[in-house]
Every structure is written in structure tokens, then in C-alpha cells.
Amino acid sequence: MGVFRLALALCCVMVSPAQAGQGSDNHVHGLGALDVIREGNALSVVLFAPLYNLLGSEAAPTTDAERQKVKRAIAFLRSETALRFNPEARCKRVDQVLASEVLNPHTHTPGDDHQGHVVGPHSDVSMRWEYQCDNISALQQVDVGLFKLFPFMAELRAQAVLQKRRPETNLNPASTVFRLQ
Q1: Sequential DSSP letters for 68-79
Q2: Which helix (H) or strand (E) is 25 found in, with range?
Q3: Which of 52, 66, 40 is nearest to 130 (CA)?
Q4: Please, is 66 exposed, middle or buried when counting C-beta atoms within 10 Å of its C-beta (0-12, 13-18, 19+)?
Q5: pLDDT at 113
Q6: What pLDDT is attached to residue 1?
Q7: 39-58: per-residue pLDDT in tens?
Q8: Which of 78, 76, 77, 55 is nearest to 67 (CA)?
């Protein structure tokens, strides 16, 4: 496992989204972060945002309408339209992981001491997509479709770690394409 992917994996494992947002300046409704990391032909894309940005609420759903909204959010995050790359790069998704105590609650087993499961007034979501690209040198952009379904998402601070470049930009509903070259 390369250095960038190892660092990404450690960040995702060591700090849950709920813990990362609590008492932190990183939890700002409307704002989120999108990180793109390239290693060889592999591409990792990670979204981190307050759950409010996706649902307009940070509480667990209690009504049928709220549960439907959660299902739509999960389906969209897992869909091919959440992120699209220029076709010349020929990127295919090989894995995805959703971390959210509200969107993807885990089940507890007898004897679970609940360590590391901090649920507070703020809930966050982390989504990681993994891709393999047959022609990664042709990768020029990521079209971020998240603004289409999530109206409370006002801005994503996007940054990339590529072979020779470190592009960054702010994305919003009027500007959804992250140019990597």
C-alpha cells in the first residue's frame, strides 16, 4: 500500500466522522471537503461533510418521509452520477465505503463496549470511492454531481494529490467540475 493510500486509510479508521466533527471548526453546515488522491492507476476520492449538507438535518430519521430521504441519499452516493470523470481516463469504480452513524448505522453485538462511538449534536458523513483507471494519464477532471441532489451543500473545498500536481479549488452548485490538469 502506498504512502498516500495508507495515510488516507489511517485517517478514515482512526477518527470516525462523528468524532471528527465534534468541537471542531471543520463542522460547518453547507461546507465540505473533497479529496482526490492518485497512486499509479488507482484513484481514491473522499467526501467529508456535515450530514446536514445531505439531509437538512443531523438527526436519525423518525418518519417514513425522512427514511425515504436517507435511502435516496445513500443510493445517490453509491450511484455512478455522484462523481464522473472524463471518459478518456476509463475509470471504473472498484470499491466504496460510507461512514455515518445516521446513514449507515452499525449493529452492536453482545459485549460491545461502544468505545469510539461518540454520538453528539453533530453528525458527519464520510464517503470514500476507489477507482482503477485504464488511462489515468488522460484524467483531466472530476464532475461532482453531489450538488444536484443535496441542496444544503453550498461549497466543497476540493484538493488533489496527483503525481506532479496538487490542484485545489472551491466547488459549488454553479461550478461542479474539479479540473485536475
Answers
A1: HHHHHHHHHHHS
A2: none
A3: 40
A4: middle
A5: 52
A6: 47
A7: 999 999 999 999 999 999 98
A8: 55
Q: What is the DSSP string of 109-166?
A: -TT---TT----S--EEEEEEEEEETTGGG--EEEETHHHH-TT--EEEEEEE-SS--
CB–CB of 141/179 below 8 Å? yes
pLDDT digits 0-9 by tens, 58-72:
888 899 999 999 999
Residue 156, all three cell numbers: 466543497
* Residue 5 confidence (pLDDT): 46
pTM to 2 decimal places: 0.79
In whole angstroms, how far apart are CA 124 and each of 15, 35, 107, 136, 164? 11, 16, 18, 31, 31
> Distance (Å, rounded) from C-alpha 48 to C-alpha 125?
6
**Quick check: 82 and 146 in contact, CB under 8 A?**
yes
Grid cell, residue 48, equals 467529508
CA distance linking residue 93 with residue 85, whole number of Å: 11
Query: E-strand spans in 4-106?
Result: 31-39, 42-50, 83-85, 91-99
Which residues of the chain fall below pLDDT 50?
1, 3-24, 107-109, 114-118
Dig out the grid coordinates for 83 from the structure: 462523481
